[in-house]
Specification:
The chain contains 15 helices and 13 strands. It has helices at about 5-15, 35, 50-55, 60-65, 90-100, 115, 125-140, 155-160, 170-185, 195-205, 215-240, 270-295, 360-370, 390-410, 455-465, and strands spanning about 45, 105-110, 145-150, 190-195, 255-265, 295-300, 305-310, 320-335, 340-345, 375-380, 415-420, 440, 450. The longest helix is centred in the middle third of the chain and has 25 residues, at about 215-240. Bound molecules: beta-D-glucopyranose.
């Protein structure tokens, strides 16, 4: 990286706090007049991903689940394997029943590439029919489907060709998106091409805790660039083949990415902490969010890697900004670390079961920040691992209040998807974290679902929006 550019990045990071100041929450009963605060047709739903709930899969993650890190530590906590998961592949009717009970009018789920295209060029029409039947059944139940095409997993045949380290994956995924959109387009308008490019880059290629387990920021930057290129190609393909307006709003498609946004809070006022927090923010948050406006991929880790490239089709490739928001990180510079910092939560802050800070004000901050870019926003994920089930009601309430506050201040926020409908396979953390509004008994043969206390909170929000939860 040249000195002038570094100085520019550094100067921007030092002089501008990218996050607007937090709001004071709880000052008013923000849930009382939801219909006046939120747009008509606001989507209230839950989100899941195929590998985490369907069961019976065979892909790069199932391979990873059986392995161990070079030091002998298993890749997955307690040596858990995804296995039968929630068996949602066979239980969608039951799951739709749970959504009706919540009063939800939307559901975000992903289709599994390894199931639909088990070998290169093959196509499992039965599985495709089943996904189409899901989308139709959701629609018939008054639940708008949002379909994610890529949520972390790759078919083995893609992974063995190098996965996201191979440029070919861009075209393979675009071809897959074309087939999916052709098949499901009659029932689906809302598409999410890729879930969390920054998380894939960080966890698979910097921290090495997701497959393929590498720790190389240079590779991570190129992976993220490839994912954005794939998004651009997928968007073109979907727009071309999905010409059916399934929800009657005059548009056949609305396409975006589910972008994981974190608050990177400098741990102190020292210029180095602020510089590193700013650079991390640019890499993790800003590169994806600015891409559809600049048409460029701009990624930089000073002295390590720089990607600055115009990408055909990227400009205008988001119809909405999807935001996955969970937490805030406090950033202490450590230039020996591959991530240039150590991230932590101060001892006096509330945390969830995985030790992540509970920071609802952060949702308001990110909505204000990304709402200002001019695209409609969906909160495509927000949730909490909470085994007791007792913390989730206030978590949901406070985060929804933050959303309402941002909407009242003019942010065009069109929907909220809670992560998650069910407890599920939480990647490297296995089955211990419990994210579900409905608890799943993984030991029972029927993967029994039972409500957690936050179901009532969700129903309260649904009623506030004029939706009608069904009796359980
Ligand atoms: C991912 C989900 C995951 C959730 C909770 C998100 O980053 O999209 O797959 O389960 O966070 O960690």
């Amino acid at each position: 990286m040249n000195i002038a550019r570094l100085a520019r990045l550094g100067y921007a990071a030092l002089t501008r706090d990218p996050h607007p100041p937090p709001c004071v929450l709880g000052a008013e009963d923000a849930l009382s007049s939801l219909r006046s605060a939120l747009p008509a047709g606001f989507l209230l739903g839950t989100a899941t991903a195929s590998h985490q709930i369907e069961g019976g899969l065979d892909n790069d993650w199932t391979d990873w689940e059986r392995g161990a890190h070079p030091g002998g530590e298993p890749h997955i906590k307690d040596r858990a394997v995804s296995g039968a998961a929630c068996d949602s592949w066979s239980r969608i009717d039951e799951d739709i029943g749970l959504m009706r009970r919540l009063g939800a009018n939307a559901y975000r789920f992903s289709v599994e590439w390894s199931r639909l295209e088990p070998t290169e060029g093959a196509w499992n029409e039965d599985a495709a029919d089943r996904y189409l039947a899901w989308a139709n059944a959701l629609r018939a139940a008054g639940i708008e489907p949002m379909v994610t095409i890529h949520h972390f997993t790759l078919p083995r045949w893609v992974a063995t060709q190098g996965g996201w380290m191979n440029d070919r994956t861009i075209e393979l995924l675009a071809a897959f998106a074309r087939r999916v959109a052709k098949k499901l387009g009659s029932a689906v308008d809302l598409w999410c091409t890729i879930n969390e490019p920054s998380v894939v880059a960080a966890l698979s290629y910097v921290k090495g805790i997701f497959p393929p387990g590498l720790e190389d920021p240079r590779i991570a930057a190129h992976v993220m660039a490839r994912m954005l290129k794939a998004h651009a190609r997928m968007t073109e393909a979907i727009r071309e083949v999905d010409t059916t307006d399934a929800d009657g709003d005059g548009r056949a498609t609305r396409i975006g990415i589910a972008h994981h946004v974190r608050i990177f809070q400098p741990a102190t006022r020292s210029p180095l902490d602020r510089l590193v927090a700013g650079l991390t923010d640019r890499f993790f948050n800003e590169a994806v969010a600015s891409a559809p406006f600049t048409g460029r991929i701009e990624l930089a880790i000073p002295g390590v890697v720089e990607v600055d490239e115009a990408v055909p089709g990227l400009l205008g490739s988001f119809d909405y900004m999807g935001i996955n928001y969970y937490t805030r990180d406090h950033v202490k510079a450590d230039l020996r670390d591959p991530a240039l910092s150590k991230q932590f939560v101060p001892a006096d802050r509330p945390v969830n079961d995985l030790g992540w800070e509970i920071y609802p004000e952060g949702l308001y901050q990110v909505l204000k920040r990304y709402g200002a870019l001019g695209l409609p926003v969906y909160v495509t994920e927000n949730g909490i691992p909470d085994k007791s089930g007792d913390v989730r009601p206030s978590f949901l309430r406070s985060h929804f209040e933050a959303l309402v506050r941002a909407a009242r201040e003019g942010v065009d926020v069109r929907g909220y998807f809670h992560w998650s409908l069910l407890d599920n396979f939480e990647w490297a953390e296995g089955y211990e974290p419990r994210f579900g509004l409905f608890r799943v008994d993984f030991d029972s043969p029927d993967k029994r679902r039972s409500p957690t206390p936050a179901v009532e909170t969700f129903q309260e929000i649904a009623r506030g929006l004029g939706l009608e939860p069904e009796a359980g």
